[in-house]
Design brief:
It contains 9 helices and 14 strands. It has 381 residues and is α/β, with parallel strands linked by helices.
């Protein structure tokens, strides 16, 4: 089978998955499709954490086993026209390219299976649910045993702001620490003409929103990146009634773990002030640590990518992603590395950011990603 065949197979996988997106922990069609493809190649399938599964190609008990992650979930959005195919599922769309990631893994799995006589390692693919949700898709799989017996783990994320044919990778930090919050404030309603008889949750939420922003300027070294972004504020029922409840949702991000602690400590202190002012507060705060690439594994990827793509197409000075990624949990447990795969084409105007709608990509990146995964596995054809 030649590169042209692998390219076409990868694109066919991607387009099917793109047309049938599913939200986190509801990836039933997605999971079934990927399982069947891998079973036909001789991989042993084991369910792992709700809709997730692992796929093993066991060559020899004397060989180590390495793993590759593919995330499966889509985003809650109705896709606008613009891509070569469009979502057929209401309120679900692959606007982050997880369809690409699965197509890359399936194509790499085919390359590896077709050349298994050359392998000196056992192979595992981790098909993970709910990466987009701060509810621990990766953590759930780890708790279910997906890394047992694994010596190394590798992952990627496509990026249309990098041209196809290039990757970005570095040892150390590759993404931000990211915590997502949902804060509910309960006060006391009253008529708008008698505000002294109530406790206005809307006014308090505005105070918090502004004080959250001030945490960054007042408590963080300006030479270090930090963000507290409040993206949702819901409050009020009528124009003449003080709001009894208000809800704020947003995220806290930084690259430095001590900066993240400073942000969260002051964030929680502001919430305590709200309680002191007489409000009842409930908080849901959860997130992912930064991806911290292991040096030796990173160098391994750099060397393989330099052979496949050319040294000048391996970007080792590309800035870390300000977003967060739960792949970080995998390489907290096991040695490994994560890289950004170019999926754009600036000359043709394909350079939209992640989560754009529509989310346009260059499908040629599928073959490139598959070759890199196969190369890491030891298949260099």
């Amino acid at each position: 089978m030649n590169s042209h065949d692998y390219r076409n197979i990868g694109i066919e996988h991607r387009r099917f998955l793109h047309m049938h997106p599913e939200l986190g922990r509801k990836e039933y069609v997605t999971s079934e499709y990927c399982r069947k493809q891998l079973e036909q190649l001789g991989y042993v399938i084991t369910p792992c954490f709700e809709t997730g599964f692992i796929a093993d190609l066991n060559i020899s008990p004397d060989f180590p086993k390495i793993a590759f992650r593919a995330d499966m979930d889509a985003l809650p959005a109705n896709e606008k026209e613009g891509e070569v195919v469009c979502s057929q599922t209401p309120n679900a769309a692959h606007l982050c390219g997880h369809d690409l990631h699965m197509a890359i893994a399936l194509t790499a799995a085919l390359m590896i299976a077709n050349n298994k006589q050359k392998l000196h390692t056992n192979i595992r693919f981790l098909f993970q649910p709910s990466e987009e949700m701060f509810r621990g898709g990766a953590k759930g799989m780890i708790d279910s045993g997906c890394l047992e017996g694994i010596s190394q783990v590798f992952g990627l994320h496509n990026d249309p702001q990098i041209d196809t044919g290039k990757i970005a990778i570095r040892p150390g930090i590759m993404s931000s620490n990211g915590d997502q919050f949902k804060l509910t404030i309960e006060g006391k309603s009253a008529h708008a003409s008698a505000p002294h008889l109530g406790l206005d949750a809307l006014s308090e939420s505005v105070r918090l929103l502004n004080d959250f922003k001030a945490i960054v300027t007042d408590h963080v070294d300006p030479n270090k990146a930090a963000l507290i972004s409040t993206c949702v504020l819901n409050a009020g029922e009528a124009p003449n009634i003080l709001a009894r409840t208000a809800t704020l949702e947003g995220s806290i991000r930084s690259f430095d773990i001590q900066v993240q602690k400073t942000l969260k400590d002051n964030f929680l202190a502001e919430i305590e002030e709200t309680r002191r002012r007489g409000f009842t507060v409930s908080l849901d705060l959860r997130g992912y640590p930064a991806i911290n690439n292991h040096r030796e594994d990173t160098q391994e990827v750099i060397e393989i990518a330099s052979r496949v793509l050319g040294k000048n197409n391996v970007l080792t000075d590309y800035p870390p992603m300000v977003g967060s990624e739960d792949f970080s949990y995998f390489i907290e447990k096991v040695s490994g590395a994560f890289f950004f795969l170019g999926s754009g084409n600036h000359a043709m105007g394909i350079n939209n950011p992640l989560h754009s709608n529509p989310f346009i990509v260059n499908e040629d990146c599928i073959l490139i990603g598959a070759k890199l995964f196969a190369g890491i596995a030891g298949i260099n054809d």
